Every structure is written in structure tokens, then in C-alpha cells.
């Protein structure tokens, strides 16, 4: 029997159960993967709590890396023995072995370890689409990025530096601010001790920024709009503090004809050629040394509940992985 984390009801970390599961052979379009590690991401909390509904019981987790044990009869782009990684649906990454769609698996270069790959796919490809597709950065821009010391944030700090972008990052403590600066964030704002709207205006001499990348949600959304320059874009890609409530479109007009988008990685990576190009750019940044993936927390798969508690308490920095 294989082991996996499943939820039979929604709620707090205590609903994560470590159970035995039957894992069969892969069918058409599928591959069986023995996982070296799986990634922990805030989206997992959304599924666990029911903010993003799942039919129950359900597996949880969106990201992992391992070695293919076997493939279905019509899978031609992968074979047994390939080192692979993924980020995407269906949920169920919190497992030691799983059968999953081969279409979301990409080969991992030999220079990148499987634990690193498990820690980087969702967060790294998120930065790729944010910086290269949603609001393409060309270098020279000044941007505001919330949660700069988190898993996505630390990758963003490094990627922004590599692109020649001035990044203003918000953090929750001076220690996290030092971490973000060490990774390339130009300016850090501790939102617990500073007014980030005032500081952004001060840093930009009143001009504001052309883009805000915000994964926090309700706590920062409207203040983030106040940080934008006219015709600026608000990129709301997460809801760590809760979902943004309905609001009047006049809020955008009165602040300077602003744009708002709510992107997801899974839309940007839905087509195979897009997935491969996004993964290739991420792998290239890591192989070049411009972006280093820092695994700052490791938990046993059986201890997934503890990992969720620490994530929600904002005790984690960088990337976190679960080891089967």
C-alpha cells in the first residue's frame, strides 16, 4: 500500500489524514510517479479549508517531483526512469506514489535535484508568468511585490534583479526584510511598522508603480490600488488574507484608469507548448545561478498538518517540501 495525505472534510490542519491508498497502473494519458518530494504552497490551504471546493474525500497538493515507474500505452513524450516534475491539477501531490496525467509532467535537467524541482515548479512558474506574461517586465521598471520573503517572493527578488528591475517588497518583520534584500529586493517595507502606500510614494517620488503583484488579498488590495500610477495594473494572484470582496469599477477609474487581473498558473500553462516554454525558462534561470531555490523547511509527509500550521502562521520562508 502507498501512503498519502487526504481530506475527508474541510477545516483546519487537523483534517489532513495520513492514510493507506491503492495505486494502480497508469491508464491512457497517465504516468505512475514515485515521488522524491512534494511542495507546500498556500493554494493547498485554500483547498483544505474549502475556499476552493473539492469533491470529498480528496487528495491534496499541487506540486512534486520524482521518477516515472510506468506510463500508459499512449504516452510517447515520457518513459519509465525519467526524472520529472509538475505543478497543476488534479490535486494529490501529498503522496509517495501517484498515478497522474502525463500531460503536466516535464523532464527535470540532470543539473537540478529532485527535491529542488519539487520546491520550485509552482512558485517558479508563477514568477515566470507574472514577470514574463501577465505584465511583461523589460528592465528598468519599479514594481511593488507583496510577501517578498515567501517562496514566490524570494524567487521574484532574484528574478527581478536579473532583469534589472527595481523591486519594492513588503514583509512582516525586519528579519524577513533582511532576507528579501539579500535575495535582490531593492527596497523593503515592513507592513507592521510602516504605511506601505506612503513608502511606495516616497520611493517613487509620488509617481507610484506601473504594476503591483499581490498574493495577500483583502488586507492589501485597495491600498495596492493606491500605489499604482495612472494606467497601472493590479495583478491579484492570491488571497492569503481572504478573498477580495466585490467592488465598484469606479474604484479603478477614480484612481487613474487602472487595470486589474486575477491570473492563475493553470490557465497560463494549460497548453503543452506554453508549459514547456515556461518550465524551460525557469530551469534556465536556476541552472544559470541567477535564481537559487532555497528549501528552508522540510517535513515528513506524515507531518503535513504541522507544515500547514507553520505556513498559516507565517513562520516559513522560501520554499517548503514534504518528504514521503
UniProtKB/TrEMBL annotation:
This protein's superkingdom?
Bacteria
Question: By its UniProt entry, which Pfam families does this protein fall under?
Answer: ADH_N (PF08240), ADH_zinc_N (PF00107)
Which intervals hold domain Enoyl reductase (ER)?
11-322
Answer yes or no on keyword NADP: yes
Which Gene3D superfamilies does the entry link to?
Medium-chain alcohol dehydrogenases, catalytic domain, NAD(P)-binding Rossmann-like Domain
Question: Known PROSITE patterns for this protein?
Answer: QOR_ZETA_CRYSTAL
- State the SUPFAM superfamilies in the record: GroES-like (SSF50129), NAD(P)-binding Rossmann-fold domains (SSF51735)
Q: Does Secreted show up as a keyword for this record?
A: no
The portions of this protein that span the membrane are: none
Keywords from the named record:
NADP, Oxidoreductase
- What is the protein name given in its UniProt record? Quinone oxidoreductase
